[in-house]
Amino acid sequence: MKILHVPCLEDNYSYLIIDESTKEAAVVDPVEPEKLINAANEHGLNLKLVLTTHHHWDHAGGNEKIKEMVPGIKVYGGSLDNVKGCTNKVENGDKVSLGADITILALHTPCHTKGHISYYVTGKEGEDPAVFTGDTLFIAGCGKFFEGTAEQMYQSLCVTLGSLPKPAQVYCGHEYTVKNLQFALTVEPDNVKGTGEAIMGSETTQSRAPHHSFNYRRRNGDESIHARRASRCSGQGWLPLSR
Ligand SMILES: [Zn+2]
Question: For ligand 1, a single-atom ion, which residues have Cβ within 5 Å?
Answer without folding.
Answer: 56, 135
